Automatic annotation (TrEMBL):
InterPro entries: Transposase_IS66_Orf2. It comes from the Bacteria. It comes from Paramaledivibacter caminithermalis (strain DSM 15212 / CIP 107654 / DViRD3) (Clostridium caminithermale). The lineage of its organism: Bacteria, Bacillati, Bacillota, Clostridia, Peptostreptococcales. PANTHER family: BLR8292 PROTEIN, PTHR36455. This is IS66 Orf2 like protein. NCBIfam families: IS66_TnpB (NF033819). Pfam families: TnpB_IS66 (PF05717).
Length: 117
């Protein structure tokens, strides 16, 4: 499992053929997204029907490939736009995996530390 959750998560905005394994997905990351698959990031792919996802992650000395298939329902994947990838937070990824949309209007907003004088 993920020991240290990367701070960067990249979603593929278009559907991906999930018959691809680690090497095929790493090539998509490198050639289509123009990103390094060895970076400390998660690369998330979804099929056309939006009921399966794969997550590619490089850790230390090898790749992890996570796969999830929903028995009912679909992932609320962002619509395909002119962007090839969308950079989201790990929190937004959790929402997506839980069946929620990326934009939660009722979620608590992040608070940054401020100095009180």
């Amino acid at each position: 499992m993920l020991r240290h959750l990367p701070s960067k998560v990249y979603l593929s905005c278009s559907s991906t053929d999930l018959k691809k394994s680690i090497d095929g997905l790493a090539i998509i990351v490198q050639e289509n997204f123009k990103l390094n698959p060895f970076d400390n990031a998660l690369f998330v792919f979804c099929n056309r029907k939006r009921e399966k996802i794969k997550i590619l992650h490089w850790e230390h000395n090898g790749f992890w490939l996570y796969y999830k298939r929903l028995e009912k329902g679909v992932f609320k994947w962002p619509s395909s736009s002119s962007k090839k990838t969308l950079c989201i937070s790990p929190r937004e990824l959790s929402w997506l995996l839980d069946g929620l949309s990326l934009h939660q209007n009722t979620a608590h907003k992040s608070v940054t530390q401020r100095v009180i004088i």
